[in-house]
Amino acid sequence: MKSLPSPRLAGAALLALFAPLAVQAEALNPPVKVRYEEVVRSILYVPKYVALSQGYFKDAGLDVSMKTSQGTDKGMTALLSGSADIVLIGPEASIYVQNSESPVKPKIFAGLTATDGFFLLARKPVEKFDWSMLKGKEIIGFRPGSNPLVFLETALRKHGVDPQKDVKLLNNIGIPARAGAWMAGQGEYGIFLEPEAGELVRNGKGYIVASVGHEVGQVDYTVFTATDKYIRDNPKVIQAWTNVVARAEKYVQDTPAATLTPQIMTYFPGMDQAAVTEAIERYKQYQIWKRSPLVTAEAMQQLQDMLVASAVMKDGARVKYEDVVVTDFARKAQ
Protein backbone atom coordinates (compact mmCIF):
# COMPACT_ATOMS: atom_id res chain seq x y z
CA MET A 1 0.00 0.00 0.00
CA LYS A 2 1.36 3.43 -0.90
CA SER A 3 2.12 5.51 2.18
CA LEU A 4 0.58 8.92 2.57
CA PRO A 5 2.81 12.01 2.96
CA SER A 6 3.31 13.27 6.47
CA PRO A 7 1.38 16.41 7.50
CA ARG A 8 4.66 18.30 7.58
CA LEU A 9 5.56 17.28 4.02
CA ALA A 10 2.04 17.97 2.85
CA GLY A 11 2.21 21.44 4.36
CA ALA A 12 5.55 22.08 2.65
CA ALA A 13 4.07 20.98 -0.66
CA LEU A 14 1.15 23.36 -0.24
CA LEU A 15 3.51 26.24 0.57
CA ALA A 16 5.54 25.47 -2.54
CA LEU A 17 2.36 25.29 -4.59
CA PHE A 18 1.06 28.63 -3.42
CA ALA A 19 4.41 30.48 -3.19
CA PRO A 20 4.00 32.11 -6.64
CA LEU A 21 0.55 33.29 -5.62
CA ALA A 22 1.96 34.79 -2.43
CA VAL A 23 4.56 36.73 -4.42
CA GLN A 24 1.87 37.99 -6.78
CA ALA A 25 -0.37 39.02 -3.87
CA GLU A 26 2.44 41.11 -2.41
CA ALA A 27 3.11 42.93 -5.67
CA LEU A 28 2.14 46.58 -5.82
CA ASN A 29 -1.22 46.91 -7.53
CA PRO A 30 -1.65 48.90 -9.65
CA PRO A 31 2.01 48.81 -10.75
CA VAL A 32 4.03 51.89 -9.79
CA LYS A 33 6.14 53.70 -12.38
CA VAL A 34 9.72 54.32 -11.22
CA ARG A 35 12.17 56.56 -13.07
CA TYR A 36 15.56 54.93 -12.58
CA GLU A 37 19.08 56.00 -13.60
CA GLU A 38 22.22 53.86 -13.56
CA VAL A 39 25.60 55.53 -13.17
CA VAL A 40 27.12 53.86 -16.26
CA ARG A 41 26.35 50.87 -18.48
CA SER A 42 28.61 48.09 -17.23
CA ILE A 43 28.70 44.35 -16.64
CA LEU A 44 29.51 45.39 -13.08
CA TYR A 45 25.74 45.70 -12.60
CA VAL A 46 24.71 42.20 -13.71
CA PRO A 47 22.23 41.64 -10.82
CA LYS A 48 20.27 44.71 -11.86
CA TYR A 49 20.10 43.69 -15.53
CA VAL A 50 18.99 40.19 -14.52
CA ALA A 51 16.23 41.72 -12.38
CA LEU A 52 15.06 43.79 -15.33
CA SER A 53 15.27 41.09 -18.02
CA GLN A 54 13.82 38.27 -15.91
CA GLY A 55 10.81 40.28 -14.75
CA TYR A 56 11.74 40.63 -11.07
CA PHE A 57 10.61 44.26 -11.01
CA LYS A 58 7.40 43.39 -12.83
CA ASP A 59 6.75 40.61 -10.30
CA ALA A 60 7.05 43.21 -7.54
CA GLY A 61 4.62 45.62 -9.21
CA LEU A 62 7.27 48.07 -10.39
CA ASP A 63 7.16 49.57 -13.89
CA VAL A 64 10.77 50.68 -14.35
CA SER A 65 12.15 53.04 -16.99
CA MET A 66 15.95 53.29 -17.15
CA LYS A 67 18.46 55.92 -18.23
CA THR A 68 22.26 55.98 -18.01
CA SER A 69 23.68 59.02 -16.23
CA GLN A 70 27.34 58.67 -17.29
CA GLY A 71 28.69 59.51 -13.84
CA THR A 72 27.76 59.56 -10.16
CA ASP A 73 27.74 63.36 -10.18
CA LYS A 74 25.19 63.41 -13.00
CA GLY A 75 23.12 60.70 -11.33
CA MET A 76 22.95 62.68 -8.10
CA THR A 77 21.99 65.80 -10.06
CA ALA A 78 19.09 63.87 -11.62
CA LEU A 79 17.96 62.73 -8.19
CA LEU A 80 18.13 66.16 -6.55
CA SER A 81 16.45 67.87 -9.50
CA GLY A 82 13.54 65.44 -9.40
CA SER A 83 14.10 63.90 -12.84
CA ALA A 84 14.86 60.48 -11.32
CA ASP A 85 13.23 58.59 -8.44
CA ILE A 86 15.97 56.04 -7.72
CA VAL A 87 19.59 56.09 -8.86
CA LEU A 88 22.48 53.64 -8.74
CA ILE A 89 25.55 55.70 -7.83
CA GLY A 90 28.57 55.73 -5.54
CA PRO A 91 27.85 56.24 -1.81
CA GLU A 92 30.37 59.05 -1.64
CA ALA A 93 27.85 61.32 -3.37
CA SER A 94 25.39 61.04 -0.49
CA ILE A 95 28.14 61.99 1.95
CA TYR A 96 29.02 65.07 -0.09
CA VAL A 97 25.40 66.20 -0.34
CA GLN A 98 24.84 65.61 3.37
CA ASN A 99 27.63 68.11 4.01
CA SER A 100 26.26 70.59 1.48
CA GLU A 101 23.59 73.26 1.81
CA SER A 102 21.17 71.32 -0.38
CA PRO A 103 17.75 71.18 1.31
CA VAL A 104 17.14 67.83 -0.41
CA LYS A 105 19.07 64.99 1.23
CA PRO A 106 19.66 61.59 -0.40
CA LYS A 107 19.51 58.30 1.48
CA ILE A 108 21.15 55.00 0.59
CA PHE A 109 18.73 52.12 1.07
CA ALA A 110 20.37 49.14 -0.67
CA GLY A 111 23.79 48.13 -1.98
CA LEU A 112 24.64 46.30 -5.20
CA THR A 113 28.43 45.98 -5.49
CA ALA A 114 30.62 44.95 -2.59
CA THR A 115 33.74 46.69 -3.88
CA ASP A 116 35.34 48.45 -6.84
CA GLY A 117 34.90 46.75 -10.22
CA PHE A 118 37.73 48.51 -12.04
CA PHE A 119 40.73 46.59 -13.38
CA LEU A 120 44.18 48.10 -13.77
CA LEU A 121 45.47 47.67 -17.33
CA ALA A 122 49.03 47.91 -18.61
CA ARG A 123 49.99 48.52 -22.22
CA LYS A 124 52.43 45.60 -22.31
CA PRO A 125 52.33 42.13 -20.74
CA VAL A 126 53.71 42.06 -17.20
CA GLU A 127 54.97 38.69 -16.03
CA LYS A 128 54.87 39.56 -12.33
CA PHE A 129 53.13 42.85 -11.58
CA ASP A 130 54.13 44.91 -8.58
CA TRP A 131 52.45 48.20 -7.69
CA SER A 132 55.86 49.86 -7.34
CA MET A 133 56.11 49.57 -11.14
CA LEU A 134 53.61 52.43 -11.33
CA LYS A 135 56.04 54.98 -9.88
CA GLY A 136 56.79 57.68 -12.41
CA LYS A 137 54.03 56.48 -14.73
CA GLU A 138 50.92 58.12 -16.20
CA ILE A 139 47.67 56.42 -15.20
CA ILE A 140 44.22 57.09 -16.63
CA GLY A 141 42.20 57.60 -13.48
CA PHE A 142 38.74 59.06 -13.01
CA ARG A 143 36.88 62.20 -12.02
CA PRO A 144 38.33 63.87 -8.87
CA GLY A 145 36.33 62.99 -5.74
CA SER A 146 34.71 59.95 -7.40
CA ASN A 147 34.80 56.46 -5.93
CA PRO A 148 36.87 55.01 -8.82
CA LEU A 149 39.66 57.49 -8.13
CA VAL A 150 39.39 57.23 -4.33
CA PHE A 151 39.61 53.42 -4.49
CA LEU A 152 42.56 53.59 -6.90
CA GLU A 153 44.39 56.01 -4.62
CA THR A 154 43.67 53.74 -1.65
CA ALA A 155 45.18 50.77 -3.51
CA LEU A 156 48.24 52.86 -4.42
CA ARG A 157 48.81 53.97 -0.82
CA LYS A 158 48.42 50.37 0.39
CA HIS A 159 51.44 49.47 -1.73
CA GLY A 160 53.57 52.46 -0.78
CA VAL A 161 52.83 54.56 -3.87
CA ASP A 162 51.93 58.20 -3.19
CA PRO A 163 49.10 59.19 -5.58
CA GLN A 164 50.12 62.83 -5.42
CA LYS A 165 53.88 62.49 -5.83
CA ASP A 166 54.79 59.12 -7.33
CA VAL A 167 52.41 58.95 -10.31
CA LYS A 168 50.63 61.23 -12.74
CA LEU A 169 46.90 60.60 -12.65
CA LEU A 170 44.92 61.63 -15.74
CA ASN A 171 41.56 62.48 -14.20
CA ASN A 172 40.05 64.90 -16.72
CA ILE A 173 38.87 62.41 -19.36
CA GLY A 174 35.09 62.05 -19.71
CA ILE A 175 33.55 58.61 -19.20
CA PRO A 176 32.56 58.04 -22.88
CA ALA A 177 36.06 59.09 -24.03
CA ARG A 178 38.19 56.97 -21.69
CA ALA A 179 38.68 53.91 -23.91
CA GLY A 180 39.31 56.15 -26.92
CA ALA A 181 41.92 58.13 -24.99
CA TRP A 182 43.69 54.89 -24.09
CA MET A 183 43.56 53.70 -27.71
CA ALA A 184 45.03 57.06 -28.77
CA GLY A 185 48.03 56.51 -26.53
CA GLN A 186 47.21 58.39 -23.35
CA GLY A 187 48.48 56.80 -20.15
CA GLU A 188 50.90 53.94 -19.53
CA TYR A 189 48.36 52.30 -17.21
CA GLY A 190 44.64 52.87 -16.76
CA ILE A 191 41.60 51.65 -14.83
CA PHE A 192 38.62 50.26 -16.75
CA LEU A 193 35.34 48.50 -15.99
CA GLU A 194 33.93 45.55 -17.88
CA PRO A 195 33.13 45.35 -20.71
CA GLU A 196 35.75 47.95 -21.71
CA ALA A 197 38.58 46.17 -19.88
CA GLY A 198 37.90 42.87 -21.61
CA GLU A 199 37.44 44.48 -25.01
CA LEU A 200 40.83 46.21 -24.76
CA VAL A 201 42.47 42.93 -23.75
CA ARG A 202 40.85 40.96 -26.59
CA ASN A 203 41.96 43.58 -29.11
CA GLY A 204 45.54 43.37 -27.85
CA LYS A 205 45.40 46.95 -26.57
CA GLY A 206 45.87 46.21 -22.90
CA TYR A 207 46.64 43.60 -20.24
CA ILE A 208 44.88 43.25 -16.90
CA VAL A 209 47.45 43.30 -14.12
CA ALA A 210 45.32 43.90 -10.98
CA SER A 211 41.84 44.30 -9.53
CA VAL A 212 41.46 47.55 -7.61
CA GLY A 213 38.57 46.14 -5.58
CA HIS A 214 40.56 43.07 -4.59
CA GLU A 215 43.32 45.31 -3.24
CA VAL A 216 40.98 47.59 -1.28
CA GLY A 217 38.66 44.89 0.08
CA GLN A 218 34.93 44.84 0.76
CA VAL A 219 33.71 48.45 0.82
CA ASP A 220 30.31 49.24 -0.72
CA TYR A 221 30.96 50.74 -4.13
CA THR A 222 27.61 51.36 -5.85
CA VAL A 223 24.33 51.75 -4.02
CA PHE A 224 20.66 52.43 -4.70
CA THR A 225 19.76 55.90 -3.51
CA ALA A 226 16.62 58.03 -3.29
CA THR A 227 15.76 61.31 -1.62
CA ASP A 228 14.60 61.20 1.98
CA LYS A 229 11.23 62.60 0.87
CA TYR A 230 10.73 59.92 -1.80
CA ILE A 231 11.51 57.21 0.73
CA ARG A 232 9.08 58.68 3.27
CA ASP A 233 6.35 59.04 0.66
CA ASN A 234 6.89 55.66 -1.03
CA PRO A 235 8.01 53.07 1.54
CA LYS A 236 6.23 50.23 -0.28
CA VAL A 237 8.09 51.07 -3.49
CA ILE A 238 11.44 51.14 -1.68
CA GLN A 239 10.72 47.83 0.04
CA ALA A 240 9.64 46.22 -3.21
CA TRP A 241 12.78 47.52 -4.93
CA THR A 242 15.02 46.22 -2.13
CA ASN A 243 13.31 42.83 -2.22
CA VAL A 244 14.09 42.65 -5.94
CA VAL A 245 17.73 43.57 -5.29
CA ALA A 246 18.06 40.85 -2.64
CA ARG A 247 16.48 38.31 -4.98
CA ALA A 248 18.78 39.25 -7.86
CA GLU A 249 21.91 39.25 -5.71
CA LYS A 250 21.20 35.73 -4.46
CA TYR A 251 20.39 34.48 -7.96
CA VAL A 252 23.61 35.87 -9.43
CA GLN A 253 25.70 34.38 -6.63
CA ASP A 254 24.20 30.93 -7.24
CA THR A 255 24.10 30.96 -11.06
CA PRO A 256 26.93 30.15 -13.51
CA ALA A 257 28.17 32.94 -15.74
CA ALA A 258 27.17 31.06 -18.88
CA THR A 259 23.55 31.04 -17.69
CA LEU A 260 23.59 34.72 -16.76
CA THR A 261 25.04 35.88 -20.09
CA PRO A 262 21.98 35.43 -22.35
CA GLN A 263 19.83 37.06 -19.66
CA ILE A 264 21.71 40.38 -19.92
CA MET A 265 22.73 40.49 -23.60
CA THR A 266 19.91 42.89 -24.50
CA TYR A 267 21.81 45.55 -22.51
CA PHE A 268 25.06 44.91 -24.40
CA PRO A 269 24.03 44.73 -28.06
CA GLY A 270 26.76 43.79 -30.46
CA MET A 271 28.96 42.14 -27.84
CA ASP A 272 30.11 38.57 -28.21
CA GLN A 273 28.42 36.25 -25.69
CA ALA A 274 31.70 34.52 -24.87
CA ALA A 275 33.23 37.89 -24.02
CA VAL A 276 30.34 38.74 -21.69
CA THR A 277 30.63 35.35 -19.98
CA GLU A 278 34.34 35.93 -19.47
CA ALA A 279 33.66 39.32 -17.89
CA ILE A 280 31.04 37.91 -15.53
CA GLU A 281 33.39 35.10 -14.51
CA ARG A 282 36.12 37.63 -13.77
CA TYR A 283 33.80 39.60 -11.50
CA LYS A 284 32.69 36.40 -9.79
CA GLN A 285 36.33 35.51 -9.19
CA TYR A 286 36.87 38.74 -7.26
CA GLN A 287 33.53 38.55 -5.37
CA ILE A 288 32.44 41.93 -6.67
CA TRP A 289 28.72 41.54 -5.97
CA LYS A 290 27.06 41.82 -2.58
CA ARG A 291 25.31 38.85 -1.02
CA SER A 292 22.90 41.13 0.84
CA PRO A 293 21.54 44.61 0.05
CA LEU A 294 22.44 45.86 3.54
CA VAL A 295 25.05 48.66 3.56
CA THR A 296 26.86 48.38 6.88
CA ALA A 297 28.18 51.05 9.23
CA GLU A 298 31.64 49.48 8.99
CA ALA A 299 31.72 49.88 5.22
CA MET A 300 30.64 53.53 5.39
CA GLN A 301 33.23 54.21 8.08
CA GLN A 302 35.96 52.73 5.92
CA LEU A 303 34.79 54.72 2.91
CA GLN A 304 34.98 57.95 4.90
CA ASP A 305 38.49 57.01 6.04
CA MET A 306 39.40 56.67 2.37
CA LEU A 307 37.79 60.01 1.44
CA VAL A 308 39.76 61.75 4.18
CA ALA A 309 43.01 60.04 3.14
CA SER A 310 42.43 61.17 -0.46
CA ALA A 311 41.87 64.74 0.80
CA VAL A 312 38.44 65.06 -0.79
CA MET A 313 36.83 65.42 2.62
CA LYS A 314 38.07 66.87 5.91
CA ASP A 315 38.16 64.64 8.94
CA GLY A 316 35.74 66.94 10.75
CA ALA A 317 33.20 66.60 7.94
CA ARG A 318 32.43 62.93 8.60
CA VAL A 319 28.71 62.20 8.58
CA LYS A 320 26.71 59.89 10.81
CA TYR A 321 25.84 56.54 9.32
CA GLU A 322 22.14 56.94 10.04
CA ASP A 323 22.11 60.32 8.27
CA VAL A 324 23.00 58.76 4.91
CA VAL A 325 21.89 55.12 5.19
CA VAL A 326 18.44 53.73 6.01
CA THR A 327 18.63 50.03 6.89
CA ASP A 328 14.98 49.08 7.51
CA PHE A 329 14.26 47.93 3.97
CA ALA A 330 17.43 45.86 3.54
CA ARG A 331 16.95 44.17 6.91
CA LYS A 332 13.37 43.21 6.00
CA ALA A 333 14.53 41.95 2.60
CA GLN A 334 17.03 39.64 4.31
UniProtKB/TrEMBL annotation:
Question: Quick one: where is this thing mainly located?
Answer: periplasm
Among its keywords, does the record have Signal?
A: yes
UniProt KW keywords: Signal
Which branch of life, at top level? Bacteria
Pfam families, from UniProt?
NMT1
Family affiliation: Belongs to the bacterial solute-binding protein SsuA/TauA family.
Enumerate the transmembrane spans: none
Gene Ontology cellular-component terms for this entry are: periplasmic space
Listed InterPro entries: SsuA/THI5
Q: Which residues form the SsuA/THI5-like domain?
A: 47-257
Where does this protein come from, organism-wise?
Answer: Achromobacter agilis
Decide whether keyword Signal is in the record: yes
Q: Where in the cell is it found?
A: Periplasm
Which residues does UniProt assign to the signal peptide? 1-25
**Name the record gives this protein:** SsuA/THI5-like domain-containing protein
